[in-house]
From TrEMBL:
Residue spans of biased composition, Low complexity class: 1085-1096
Organism: Pseudonocardia cypriaca
Disordered: annotated segments: 598-618, 1074-1096
Annotated protein name in UniProt: Uncharacterized protein
Length: 1096
């Protein structure tokens, strides 16, 4: 053995487990076998074994749930200080070689009078209770106990227990033998008769009716249980007796046997198959059937049972197995997988064969059965213990709740589904008030001749996992109801009733009617005015079979166009007619129709529909004039769009627009085609005869227009007319009289255009004139387009070359006049031209527009999208002429200039400015004239004079004090004007230098230099020279600066030597010219000085 894992002595509980219930002086023992293994090869034997010892269980993990995870506890445990249950995990840390198998436990408490509940919980989620006790002594027995759940009050001290691994076969006593009611066969030996099995069941039957026979409270005896179990087991083909015989006496291994039954179906035969042994074990949920099968037995002990003392039994036997049978289905675990673990050296140790020796001794024929088994069958011994404690609590009261909404089953009954909260329960008794809902079976018993059958609830997903599910499908309508649910344990003990109540659900609403409503037009109506155009027909199918829970229809309510409701008695088909509202010709009225069913409670949901009432009379034709309406000119693909505007109509009205060719209509009318006649005259001829054309064959339906715009494409090269006939159509589909609808002539404008004009330009005094001449215009073409009208011209003018003529603006238009040689000509003066601008002209010519009307105009409701009816069609322009160019000039004007101060500033007024597109700009040239008469240019950096960009031009020449300025204008062509002189306004000055020694107490230490500046002109007496005087040596060394008449001190150390000369330079200001003094000697110093930091 290893320290990490201990061997298991007994069979896993998933295959075989035992449970017990004390009823002094007897013990009820219940065997639970997995459907995967079925029944053993011989009767079940229960050996009563003495308990070697009761020991304190020390290896226990105590814990309680907490928000942050399980919280571990240590005994003693005060239950009053814990909010929630306390769990005890019974572990195994002892020194035994085998894993402990606690089959009996006693929970020790400090005060046995304080109430608490001890439950044996399953080892999975820990929520399902296997058994529990709520009174002292807290002793519990089971096949295996691994977890306890304790709730209530008081203090828990510890747990004592009995370990089933300490049981031995040497001291075992045969308690009882429980055999199947089946004859000996290859799959079983030691069976009993069915009557013996019935006797076994009847002896342990109930003594009084319970929840299964709700409403009846009578005493029951042996015969009542005998007849009840006989009726249950004797059900034909699917009862336990038939299934048991079929599984054990016919065919293969009983665990593999499947039963096939016919299902009742009036349409076609149907069958179902189910596992026979699994069906037998399901039927064993009834305690009587379980006793009949030998799965529930009673061992009578020769003493009163002590609730504080442990009792124990062991059951063992041989099973024939199919390893492929599933033990669990989700996830699937095969029996072979479980058997493999049992063959593990840590499970099912060999010494357990002590129990199989007892089996062989009790049933010697087992050896024969084992020897005769087929080779594909696996034989496996199974051993399971069980302890017996004090009487456990009966099943807990179930907690039923409503699950989902009510569902109506028929008119007066509905169904509800219930969910049993908490872990999945066993058999239940289900009742609605005092009416039991479990199925019943006729037994013929002396106390009751009809008995209730147990009900195994379905399964449903609940908040805590899988829960029980029940359904009641026959609840009477309109009454509150309370359901009672009791659950039974494996020994037939019933819980108290759990209750849940519900109010009756609202009955389903009546269905919305299926309505067929239509307008039936009248056959004879006056042609004009407002009339009733027909009737509104309403048909409603009234269903004879309504949905479950729905009350029958008592009345059909019909409301048409807001009129008072019309109540009609229900019939299979309700039909009624009502006058439609009045309409005008072509009018449309939407008539609402609302229908609803009534039952005894009142109206149901309504169905609303709308009937469109359309006046069936013909509409009036349109009014149109005789003018030709023009299409657009052909596009590059050779098609021309015709777009017309039709009169606006009421909603729902349309137009059928028909199109016919001139030649087809002339054939219909018998009129010849003269192509030299004006198209307007030809159009009038056919339009006047429109009433004679009632045949639709010359026409093509071009479009159905729902709005006011009709557009279509016409061939651009065809010179004949087309005729449009727009026929109004009402919403009812009625057309106006076809022959009475007038014809609208339409045509594509002609392509005729004259040759390109010849264009010349010549001087016309100070202006220019242009002469246009066009040759090759045929007078017959002029007469066909517009008799008596001349061709026209237009001139385009540009200043930046020719470019695309389309983007050159038109400056002149007019009519051409006939010339003597058959040509057409025009002379156009070019006035208002800007000088020095080079202009380019191009000319175009066109024929007169084609007239559209050859008769007196009349109002028309059909209009062209562009223009108005009667507008002529403009003729296309010719290609442009060869461009010609011309320019006018202007003389150079006299200059108006003057010079002013400060500055001097030269101002030129009323100067000529060239146009933006001129060939050049006007320019101003300026010279300075000194006292010697020489001219010095005053030009911008390019040396070409100043561009005149404004009529007022200003130039500044700071500090120049010459005699005058000379100015000259240059035009854009480079021609020059005369020189104009302007005197200079600056005042001349004279500068004198005053030199004085600078004396101190120690002698001369330098000199004072002062610049005296005076104005030379008396006109400047009102101003005093300002600015700066700069002092320098004779060789140019700057000694410093000071304002006029302000002394500047110069020390001996500022210059390298003395005895030189100095001068003063006046720099000038805005009104005074600069000047320089005569040089003056400087005083000599006593020694050489240091070179000053002076500016040269």
């Amino acid at each position: 053995m290893t320290a990490g894992r201990k061997a298991e002595v007994y069979t896993p509980e998933s295959l075989l487990r035992l449970s017990s219930l004390a009823e002094s002086p007897a013990a009820h023992l219940r065997a639970w076998v997995s459907p995967a293994i079925g029944f053993p090869l011989h009767p079940l034997i229960y050996w009563r074994v003495p308990v070697p010892q009761i020991e304190e269980i020390r290896d226990i993990l105590w814990w309680t749930p907490a928000p942050d995870g399980p919280r571990e506890l240590q005994p003693p445990i005060d239950l009053d200080g814990i909010d929630g249950p306390v769990f005890a995990e019974l572990r195994d840390a002892g020194g035994s070689d085998f894993a402990a198998r606690w089959c009996w436990v006693a929970v020790d408490v400090a005060d046995p009078h304080v109430p608490l509940t001890v439950a044996v919980a399953d080892g999975g989620a820990g929520t399902r209770t296997l058994l529990q006790r709520s009174a002292w002594p807290y002793t519990l027995g089971a096949s295996r106990i691994t977890r306890l759940r304790i709730t209530g009050h008081g203090q828990v001290v510890g747990v004592r227990g009995v370990d089933a691994t300490t049981f031995t076969a040497e001291r075992a006593l045969v308690g009882l033998v429980s055999a199947l009611p089946v004859p000996d066969s290859r799959w079983y030996t030691g069976g009993i008769s069915p009557d013996e099995a019935l006797d076994r069941a009847a002896q342990a039957g109930p003594t009084r009716t319970g929840p299964l026979d709700r409403g009846v409270d009578v005493q029951l005896g042996y015969d009542d249980e005998f007849t009840r179990v006989r009726a249950l087991t004797g059900i034909d083909r699917t009862g336990p007796h038939a299934l048991l015989q079929a599984a054990h006496l016919h065919g293969d291994l009983p665990a593999r046997h499947r039963t096939q039954v016919d299902l009742p179906d009036d349409r076609r035969p149907a069958q179902a198959r189910f596992a026979t042994v699994e069906a037998l074990l399901t039927g064993a949920a009834d305690p009587g059937v379980a006793r009949w099968l030998g799965l529930l037995a009673t061992d009578r002990v020769d003493e009163d049972l002590d609730p504080e003392r442990p009792y124990a039994w062991v059951s063992a036997g041989y099973w024939a197995l199919d390893p492929d049978r599933p033990v669990t289905k989700a996830p699937r675990t095969a029996l072979g997988d479980v058997l493999a673990t049992m063959a593990d050296p840590y499970s099912y140790p060999p010494w357990t064969s002590q129990w199989t020796r007892l089996v062989r001794a009790a049933f010697p024929d087992v050896a024969r059965v084992l020897a005769e088994l087929p080779g594909h069958v696996v034989v496996q011994p199974m051993v399971a213990p069980v302890g017996l404690g004090a009487v456990s609590d009966p099943p807990a009261t179930p907690d039923p709740v409503l699950a989902g909404p009510a569902t109506w089953e028929d008119r007066d009954h509905y169904g509800r589904r219930l969910r049993l909260r908490g872990p999945t329960s066993g058999a239940v008794a289900f009742a609605r008030g005092s009416l039991g809902l479990n199925e019943r079976i006729l037994t013929g018993g002396p106390g009751l001749d009809e008995r209730g059958l147990i009900l195994l609830p379905g399964r449903a997903d609940g908040p805590g996992g899988t829960e029980g599910a029940l359904a009641d499908t026959g609840i009477p309508a309109d009454e509150p109801v309370t359901w009672l649910v009791a659950t039974a344990d494996e020994f037939g003990r019933w819980s108290e009733d759990g209750r849940v109540s519900a109010e009756p659900p609202d009955r389903p609403e009546l269905p919305a009617p299926v309505v067929e409503a239509a307008f039936v037009p009248a056959t004879e109506l006056p042609p004009t005015g407002s009339v009733v155009p027909g009737t509104v027909s309403v048909q409603v199918a009234v269903p004879t079979a309504l949905g479950p829970g729905t009350l029958p229809v008592t009345d059909v309510e019909v409301v048409v166009h807001g009129r008072p409701p019309d109540h009609v008695a229900p019939a299979e088909l309700v039909a009624a007619s009502y006058d439609a509202p009045e309409t005008g010709v072509g009018g449309t009225v939407r008539v609402p129709v609302t229908v609803r069913f009534h039952d005894e409670r009142g109206p149901g949901p309504a169905t609303s529909t709308t009937v469109s009432v359309r006046d069936p009379r013909r509409p009036a034709p349109l009014v149109v004039g005789p003018a030709v309406l023009w299409a657009a000119r052909p596009d590059p693909t050779g098609t021309a769009e015709l777009a017309l505007r039709l009169p606006a109509q009421q909603a729902g009205w349309t137009y059928h627009v028909y199109l016919a060719e001139e030649t087809a209509l002339r054939r219909t009318l018998g009129l010849p085609l003269d192509r030299d006649r004006n198209r307007a005259q030809r159009a009038k001829e056919i339009a006047d005869a429109a009433g004679r054309i009632g045949d639709r064959s010359p026409f093509t339906l071009a479009a159905t227009v729902t709005g006011v715009r009709f557009a279509t494409a016409l061939p651009g090269a065809v010179r004949t007319l087309r005729f449009v006939r727009a026929v109004p159509v009402t919403p009812a589909g009625r057309e106006a009289d076809f022959a009475a609808c007038p014809l609208v002539p339409v045509a594509v404008p002609g392509p005729d255009r004259p040759p390109s004009p010849a264009l010349t330009v010549a001087a016309n005094g100070p202006d220019l004139r242009l002469v246009l001449t066009v040759h090759g215009i045929d007078r017959r073409t002029l007469d066909r387009l517009h008799p008596g009208a001349p061709p026209r011209y237009r001139l385009r003018r540009a200043t930046a070359g020719t470019g695309d003529p389309l983007y050159v603006p038109v400056t002149d238009t007019g009519e051409l006049a006939p010339a003597a040689d058959g040509a057409w000509t025009a002379v156009v003066p070019a006035r208002g031209l800007a000088p020095f601008v080079r202009y380019t002209w191009q000319a175009e010519a066109c024929l007169p527009p084609e007239i559209a009307l050859a008769a007196a105009p009349r109002p028309s409701t059909v209009l062209p999208e562009r223009g108005e009816p009667g507008d002529p069609a403009p003729s296309p322009w010719s290609t442009p002429s060869v461009p010609v160019q011309g320019m006018v000039t202007a003389p150079i004007p006299p200059l108006d200039a003057r010079a002013t101060l400060p500055g001097p500033t030269l101002t030129l007024r009323a100067a000529p400015v060239a146009a933006p597109d001129a060939v050049g700009a006007w320019r101003l040239r300026v010279w300075r004239r000194g006292a010697d008469g020489a001219l010095t240019p005053l030009d911008p950096p390019n040396g070409d004079g100043w561009a005149v960009t404004s009529s007022d031009l200003t130039l500044t020449d700071p500090g120049w004090a010459g005699e005058a300025y000379a100015l000259q204008l240059v035009d854009p062509l480079g021609r020059t004007g005369p020189l104009t002189e302007v005197p200079s306004p600056l005042v001349r000055t004279t500068t004198a230098l005053l030199v004085e020694e600078a004396l101190t107490a120690s002698g001369v230490d330098g000199a004072w230099l002062t610049g005296i500046v005076t104005a030379d002109s008396p006109a400047a007496t009102d101003t005093t020279p300002t600015g700066t005087v700069r002092f320098r040596t004779g060789d140019g060394i700057v000694l410093g600066e000071a304002p006029p008449r302000t002394a500047l001190h110069v020390g001996f150390g500022q210059i390298p030597f003395w005895g030189g000369r100095a001068a003063a330079d006046y720099l000038g200001d805005a009104f005074h010219a600069p000047s320089t003094s005569d040089a003056r000697p400087l005083p000599e110093g006593p020694e050489l000085g240091q070179p000053p930091d002076i500016e040269r």
